[in-house]
Amino acid sequence: MEEVTAATTCLPLVRDEAWLPVEETAQVGRIRRAATALTERLGFTANRTAEVGLAVTEIGTNLHKHARQGVVLIRTVRGERDAAVEVVAVDRGPGIGDVALAWQDGQSTTGTLGVGLGAVARLATSCSMTSRLGSGTVLVARFAPTNVWTPEWGVESAAGITRPINGEEVCGDAYAFCRSADRMTLMMCDGSGHGPLAAAASDTAVRLFRDLAPMPPDQLVTRLHQALRGTRGGAVAVADIDLAARTVRYCGLGNIAGAVLTGDRKQGMISVPGVAGHQARTIRAFDYPLPDRAVVALHSDGLTERWGVDFGADLVNDEPVLIATTLLREAGVRNDDASVLVARPA
Description:
This protein is α+β, with helices and mostly antiparallel strands and 346 residues long. The protein has helices spanning 25-41, 46-66, 99-102, 117-123, 195-212, 217-227, 320-331, and strands at residues 9-11, 14-21, 71-78, 83-90, 126-132, 136-143, 158-163, 173-179, 183-191, 234-242, 247-253, 257-261, 266-269, 271-272, 286-289, 295-299, 338-343. It has two domains: 13-143, 2-Layer Sandwich (Heat Shock Protein 90); 158-343, PPM-type phosphatase domain (Phosphatase 2c, domain 1, 4-Layer Sandwich), CATH 3.60.40. The chain is globular and about 55 Å long.
């Protein structure tokens, strides 16, 4: 990670490694091998690698037995001193009615992940889940090299997820966010097209954002527009959250969607037409109130905008990564690169 001031942390310190389906028995072994190969690459001990393999096998087995359209994302998350492996499991199964009961050893439900969750929770550094009957389940389990592990400041308050279009190994969308004591700044870029050239454009945006943030959103989008010349360009958006004033200043160029979400309202935020790096007649920021316990979400056009606040996540209690993954599952219906970034300003 590039150096930043002591008072500011810029992320992501997350790398999405692989999306793997779990619909056949053999695919359980595949996700176990992918997870343990990543732990070995990160320098985990042989004993810890075996524990991760056992937990991931439990997750995959339950997806295969109880879920529909089960998929596992395996990725790395950097902490203050070392990196952890994060496993995100998502499905369209029948869901779990009593999530608290499902964590207890020996419990089985008609939903997903009803067996073995107690073992997964004990082996994981952290583990959480959201589920809704009739919609499905999302689980996230994080495995650090040792029991003493501190995530980078900001990882718990915001999280994103990316998924490439079918047939591509890299996603052309990217995101980043910057956290300090009194504000959060979110950025998303959807590189034009798909594949490595789209990813190169969005990576350029992430690098510049991490160098410049925090900066007023309209100025930052202007700088991103200039920096993306010579690339494929793309849609970009920046949301600056003032934690003291409880406001969001948002500037979007192109078709990144932004919204402030409460338990009963979705307040969409305005992006102006254009393509960063190629065409920008107007770059303008708009201000929005940030109610208590609200979350802020950005997503690329790999997701439809036809979703409401009742999309299956618990906006008050769920971690940002669970909210982002649930939204991707419910609204990521287009055959396109897709990304979601969710922040819960404290």
